[in-house]
Write a structure and sequence with these properties.
2 copies of one chain form a homodimer. Chain A is α/β, with parallel strands linked by helices and 210 residues long. In chain A, 54% of the residues lie in helices and 12% in strands.
């Protein structure tokens, strides 16, 4: 094919996509820093349900940008989330990426305990400090995070809570909202690794711009 | 939280999820090997639109399983697709994973030409043979693949065509369907890296079972 009318410039593709999304969504209640995040979720999924599903806790954008600029570590529950994060931007901010779900000791411990690797990876990743936590896949990882935060073992500067699925995903996200931790959440069943990554990418762009 | 009623066993989570999906979808027109693929897409996205959107070309499951059992290489357009593929299953089948989008020479060539890295990565990956091609992100990569196939430079055993977005994604997938290449396609704007990976993962399970 390579038809001559196919747009091949990535910046032009993105700009046109954003214009289409702006036009189709029309009016909304997000502020000028929330909307670039939601728009990028729609850009990643082509799913306008996220306009209604996406919730920001009070002042969470300020807290997230502060954490990024302080170079806090970024934890993620799956390798796919890590793969989707813009590494150039992350390095420029000085943030380390931590993902333990594929570590052999995590897999062995999860098998032995009969629980998800995500739970064990979350336990391994915790070192008592602050950080940005991205949960794109596993409700079990989000529940474990809430448990650790309640116990004072972690002090999240931001929790991106967007696990996907039919067993526990929606409930885990409501539990996150009730926890009053700084969070960006896509309520309901929908979510996923690509959404977790795209939210962080959108925040990193905001951190560079502001 | 770690509430006692939270299901933490991954196999139990998957089984319950599949039962919920089966129940909510009810009757459908997919055969006994297509449905596990579609069901896994829904499991990955929590989006029932994929029941209507997902299209299989004639005999594509046979062709895909044949390619997997012959150990043909698997090409993917983004690192996220690669990250989502089950490496244990891929290694058991003897298939190599090829993804060039993050190669420095690909990025430099794309910048110089003003085109997407996906196009350059697709060009670099092509070595004239057969293979399984997963396009989860970039319509430009899919158009380039169709161009190369038409020119006889590649002979795809399977094209998973699920790019996502607002500029060219839907059109590129219609072009794939018109090409009559063996394909699994999610028509319209929706798609994504997680879907491309999950389709291959579902096919690898079928390849083991049959």
């Amino acid at each position: 094919m390579s038809a001559p009318d196919v747009i091949v410039n990535p910046l032009e593709i993105e700009a046109r996509s954003f214009a289409i999304i702006d036009g189709e969504v029309g009016e909304h209640a997000f502020d000028f820093r929330q909307w670039p995040v939601v728009r990028r979720i729609i850009h990643t999924t082509a799913d306008f349900d996220f306009v209604a599903n996406t919730v920001f806790s009070p002042q969470v954008i300020d807290k997230a940008l502060g954490a990024l600029r302080r170079g806090e570590p970024v934890y993620c529950d799956t390798a796919m989330v890590g793969a989707g994060i813009n590494k150039v931007r992350l390095a420029a901010l000085g943030c380390a990426l931590r993902c333990h779900v594929a570590d052999p000791d995590v897999a062995a411990a999860a098998r032995a305990a009969g629980v998800t690797r995500s739970i064990m990876a979350m336990r391994k990743g915790i070192d008592g400090g602050c950080g940005i936590f991205l949960v794109g896949n596993a409700p079990t990882a989000l529940y474990e995070l809430l448990h650790q935060a309640r116990a004072g073992a972690i002090k999240p500067s931001l929790v991106v809570g967007v696990p996907v699925g039919f067993v526990g995903a929606a409930e885990s996200k409501e539990a996150l909202l009730e926890s009053r931790l700084p969070s960006i959440v896509c309520r309901g069943r929908k979510g996923g690794s690509a959404i977790a990554a795209t939210i962080l990418n959108a925040l990193m762009i905001l951190a560079e711009e502001a």
